[in-house]
Design a protein that fits this description.
The strands form 3 sheets. Strands 5-2-10-8 form a 4-stranded mixed sheet. It has a 4-stranded antiparallel sheet with strand order 4-3-7-9. It has one domain: Sandwich (Immunoglobulin-like). Helix content is 15%, strand content 39%. The N terminus is likely disordered. The chain is mainly β and 158 residues long.
């Protein structure tokens, strides 16, 4: 029995299907950056002694164009372009290589371009709670390309 496909649909695995998938896939738009997490002496001692890690998480967003499709706009009024995350040991630098963003969402943002929010917290290996109070980076993505973003951390309550 022959397979029937409706107009606008493609055969899975066909060149047309791969092209359609690529239009929604994440694409490289940015070559990357590093995050240098510095710890207070007390934080360094505590994290090292408890074999705790550090999570560096980045959230990529953009402000929507006036004509942006509503399905791309989140409850905060922004377009989500993707997330990046890495886990490091105390004293290591977090390296984010080629950053990929959702191509279809990227087409929905205004001329301010992609924005980046970096949060840093403990890996919760030795405690169910976050152990560190860290600064953040919040700003345009393009200016940090090829740079190192400094973020300082101390123990919560220190």
């Amino acid at each position: 029995m022959p397979l029937a496909f409706r107009a606008g649909h493609s055969i899975p695995g066909s060149p047309l299907a791969r092209a359609q998938e690529a239009s929604h896939a994440a694409i490289p738009e940015f070559s990357g950056f590093d995050v240098q997490v510095t710890l207070s002496e007390k934080a360094k001692v505590r994290l090292t002694a408890s074999k705790e890690t550090i999570i560096v998480a980045g959230y990529l967003v953009g402000d929507p164009k006036k004509q942006a499709a509503k399905k791309y706009i989140d409850e905060m009024g922004q377009v989500s372009l993707g997330t990046i995350k890495t886990e490091i040991q105390p004293g290591q630098v977090a390296h984010f290589g080629e950053v990929k963003m959702k191509k279809d969402a990227l087409a929905q943002i205004d001329d301010n371009g992609p924005q980046l929010l970096i949060n840093v917290y403990s890996g919760r290996k030795s405690s169910k709670d976050n152990l560190v109070d860290c600064g953040i980076y919040e700003g345009a993505l393009k200016p940090v390309e090829g740079t190192t973003i400094p973020i300082a951390c101390k123990l919560i309550g220190e």
